[in-house]
Amino acid sequence: MTGYRSVVVILLLVLIVSGCGGRSGTPGAGAGDGANGSSSAGSGGTNVQPPADGSAGAGNAPGAGESEPAPADPVRDQLGKLSTDEKIGQLVLVGMDGTEINQNVRDLIEKEHVGGFIFYKDNIQDKKQALALFNALKAANRDQPVPLFLSVDEEGGRVSRMPGEFDRLPAMRAIGDVGSEELAGRIGGVIGKELSGFGLNLDFAPVLDVNSNPDNPVIGDRAFGEEPEIVSKMGISVMNGIREQGVIPVVKHFPGHGDTAVDSHLGLPVVEHDLNRLRKLELVPFARAIKEGADVMMIAHLLLPKLDPDHPASFSEPVIHGLLREELQFKGTIISDDMTMGAIVKNYDIGDAAVQFLLAGGNIVLVGHNYDQEKAVIQAIREAVASGKISAEVLDDRVYNVLKLKAKYVLAGEPATGPDVKAINREIRSLLEENGLK
């Protein structure tokens, strides 16, 4: 019996010693050792200590039952600090009268918190005046929480807002006829240099419409050509050239303004094509631009009865959400064409159109003219938010997208020094001579 008892005691001692070992089965890997990053995966992470600064740290990943800390999102933080009126302002880009800041402009900045301005030929006289205006707008916006978009339609050819000191660029049809992607990219670079020199940061170009209708009164030689392949190649090259200069390109006019016989500045064009036809022709350049990382898409004022018989594309949910967001998977910023154009104001209430555009999936309402129209749009959005027609979630979604774009391009309020007109003109002349376009 004595021998038997001795064996039992020995066995008990062995069991006790084994039970005191580390949970991983490694001798000495006790509960306190996880703080030094030496605990094994099997420990469950219950004793892992985070670094003092709150960072994840090597060997300090949360274990089972613990959640990863959410990564910092400065854009989300910025959104959370904006008032409702400041958020609404970011959804509107407006025009102005004259060549200097007036009280209406100050009110749009200080009271309405607008997200930016678009400039036309009557806002720009020469380099000195233009630079003074753009810098004055930045100064007026200094106390606002978000920097401004400062934008123009600078396509080259007949659609140009730059002052007369610059040599003229050819129409994009001439670039398309040359067929050189290198030339197109360099042309985009020239446009970007002109704009960035002034501190402009958003350009409503390039045109990605396929000019398939010879009777088209509004597109014509603004398009790169009549075939989707050449429009895609040239347009994307121009887009990238503009973007490389730190200017945001806006591709337009989705889903395609090329086969129209009505100028949407004057009336509402009707496009009878079905989705199969659009996929084969009009949508091709836009789909390729999306794959190449297009940041902003402008929606045209077109009625496409086979897609939506009740609403123009510019505030159609089947077009904006269904086609552009879901089918083409565009995650960027969507801006309307100018809501003061005849296609809208002759047929619809501008405030209601703006609200429907946002509900359909758009982000920025362009109101290029008329202070009263601009105020009407802002008020309509404000009322839609107050009533819940535009929910808090939808408002934040639309605004977050805009803030993210501004953050991506590091928009800021520092004054610009002006473009080097002589150097840019030399580059333009060289490009034209090299490609037989002079």
From TrEMBL:
GO BP annotation list: carbohydrate metabolic process; peptidoglycan turnover
What are the boundaries of the region Disordered?
Answer: 28-78
Known PROSITE patterns for this protein?
A: GLYCOSYL_HYDROL_F3, PROKAR_LIPOPROTEIN
Family annotation (Gene3D superfamilies):
Glycoside hydrolase, family 3, N-terminal domain (3.20.20.300)
> Record's Pfam families?
Glyco_hydro_3
Catalytic reaction equation(s): Hydrolysis of terminal non-reducing N-acetyl-D-hexosamine residues in N-acetyl-beta-D-hexosaminides
Chain ranges of the Glycoside hydrolase family 3 N-terminal domain: 84-405
Which E.C. number(s) belong to this protein?
Answer: 3.2.1.52
Keyword Nucleotide-binding appears in the UniProt entry: no
Q: Please name the InterPro entries in this protein's record.
A: GH (IPR017853), Glyco_hydro_3_AS (IPR019800), Glyco_hydro_3_N (IPR001764), Glyco_hydro_3_N_sf (IPR036962), NagZ_Beta-hexosaminidase (IPR050226)
> Molecular function (GO) terms listed?
beta-N-acetylhexosaminidase activity
Q: Which family does it belong to?
A: Belongs to the glycosyl hydrolase 3 family.
Report the NCBIfam families cross-referenced here: PRK05337.1
Can you say what this protein is called? Answer: beta-N-acetylhexosaminidase
* Species of the source: Paenibacillus oralis
